[in-house]
Amino acid sequence: EVQLLESGGGLVQSGGSLRLSCAASGFTFTNYAMNWVRQAPGKGLEWVSGISFDGDYTYYAGSVKGRFTISRDKSKSTVYLEMKSLRAEDTAVYHCVRGYCGGTSCYTKDSWFDPWGQGTLVTVSS
Amino acid sequence: QSVLTQPPSASGTPGQRVTISCSASSSNVGSVYLYWYQHLPGTAPKLLIYRNNQRPSGVPDRFSGSKSDTSASLAISGLRSEDEGDYYCAAWDDTLSGWVFGGGTKLTVL
């Protein structure tokens, strides 16, 4: 069974930093892109960042570019989201999502979101 | 402002057929695949339709997707109370070099 388990969320002050982790299991981690998608309270889904299956390509939403960094560790089957200069508007549930393309060697732009983790809550206090 | 526009709400009675639209404002999005996700209360979002009209295994055939130029639709037939929740369309935007979601449509089963 494919499982994505996020951790690292919590309460942080505006301007602070936080690192989210997502431990993946039940599939060959190195075959798939990975993404982070967030949902602010009362708002819709917003894609935050994605990384290709091999880690060579990373993408970011304009709202987080320059502040967030996505990375992956194939030895731990884990994807990370390093968040700096956090703002109140970054408050959200952050979901780790596999990028599935129907085959192997999945790139962020060619894959879709399946499955989704339950998410971890990040609260930025101002 | 979302590149993908959805109606904020939709509703139907059990057994009815409802459709949710998704309109792309950018030709960069209109030329690519559209995807649909279901987000039910208290659960993680779930893939419903990929590549415009493909249904993953496990998704009932009550759900179907279609796309024409810069607009797409999700149709749900035989509406059930457990279908109540939020539905999102999504697409890759080459100009933004990122994924974009529609604003979401809240489906109410009356």
What does this structure look like?
The complex is a heterodimer of chains A (126) and B (110). Chain A has 126 residues and is mainly β. Helix content of chain A is 0%, strand content 52%. Chain A contains no helices and 11 strands. Chain A has strands at 3-7, 10-13, 18-25, 33-39, 45-51, 58-60, 68-73, 78-83, 92-100, 112-116, 120-125. In chain A, strands 2, 4, 5, 6, 9, 10 and 11 form a 7-stranded mixed sheet that branches. Chain A is globular. The model of chain A has no long low-confidence stretch (mean pLDDT 96). Chain B is mainly β and 110 residues long. Chain B is built from 1 helix and 10 strands, in the order E-E-E-H-E-E-E-E-E-E-E. The longest helix of chain B is centred in the first third of the chain and has 4 residues, at 27-30. The termini of chain B are far apart. Classes of the chains: A mainly beta (126), B mainly beta (110). Chain A binds chain B through residues 35, 37, 44-47, 50, 59-62, 95, 108-110, 112-119, and chain B through 33, 35, 37, 39, 44-47, 50-51, 56, 86, 88, 90, 92, 94, 96-104.
Q: What would you say about this model in short?
A:
The complex is a heterodimer of chains A (about 130) and B (about 110). With about 130 residues, chain A is mostly beta strands.
Which labels suit this protein?
heterodimer, A: 126 residues, mainly beta, seven-stranded mixed β-sheet, four-stranded antiparallel β-sheet, 0% helix, B: 110 residues, six-stranded mixed β-sheet, 10 strands
Strand content of chain B: over 45%
Residue share in β-strands of chain A = over 45%
Biggest sheet character of chain A: 7 strands, mixed
Unreliable residue stretches of chain A: none
Question: Termini separation of chain B (Å)?
Answer: 30 Å
Low-confidence stretches of chain B: none
Radius of gyration of chain A: 14 Å
Number of contiguous helices of chain A: 0
Helix content of chain A: under 10%
Number of helices of chain B: 1
Q: Give the terminus-to-terminus CA distance of chain A.
A: 40 Å
Overall strand count of chain B: 10
* Alpha-beta classification of chain B: mainly beta
Helix content of chain B: under 10%
